[in-house]
From TrEMBL:
Protein's organism: Wenzhouxiangella sediminis
Entry protein name: Heme ABC exporter ATP-binding protein CcmA
Keywords, ordered alphabetically: ATP-binding, Cytochrome c-type biogenesis, Hydrolase, Membrane, Nucleotide-binding, Translocase, Transport
Enzyme class label: hydrolase
Origin superkingdom: Bacteria
Domain ABC transporter: 5-200
Amino acid sequence: MRVLIETGQATFSRAGEPVFEPVDLSVSGGQALVVRGANGAGKTTLLRLLAGILRPSSGRVSRHAPVAFLGHLAAFKGELNCRENLDFRRRFSGTGSGMSNSRALARVGLAGLGLRPARALSAGQKRRLGLAGLLVAPTAVWLLDEPYASLDDDGCTLVDTLLNDQLGRDGSVILSTHQRQPELQTPPEVLVVQRFAGET
Ligand SMILES: Nc1ncnc2c1ncn2[C@@H]1O[C@H](COP(=O)(O)OP(=O)(O)OP(=O)(O)O)[C@@H](O)[C@H]1O
């Protein structure tokens, strides 16, 4: 299977010091990678590096396919309603056509909330809207930071289903999680991010 995203000895520095020990990873279509590590180890930083939001201060990050990043805080405009946010996401991503708004909202359990401003959604509903964003603008690589956060049991099962669907389309998923191990048809690889230990 084709490699969709990879790194070679990649790290990111703040104030001249690497956040985490250099990371080598390679994820192909149909593969999932779970990123683990202690609080502050650098999981979010690594995912932002993979997304291209940050640039590596040493080593390399190579993206061979379009990526979507879903962070802790959903990147939605609070004053826009759910449908408008999904329209924005679709236009902004420029990727191929995905689900319609109404189908995506129904898929994530937000049917009937299309006209509600994003700021008026509960924490879990905001996470679900983020998932809908992945469905309206499909990409080969999903980078998900704590995708189970704020979700109820049904929401967590929904995440697992969407992950399995993505892998079934030969997409890739890289996700961080403290809460639970994803229940996937093919067991994911695990990468433990190690906080930079300093020069020895
Ligand atoms: N904008 C920033 N400015 C300065 N330091 C930052 C910034 N963002 C993160 N850090 C620091 O970088 C380190 C890694 O943070 P990061 O959020 O990547 O960790 P994490 O592994 O995702 O943590 P958690 O499990 O708590 O979510 C931490 O020490 C954090 O304080």
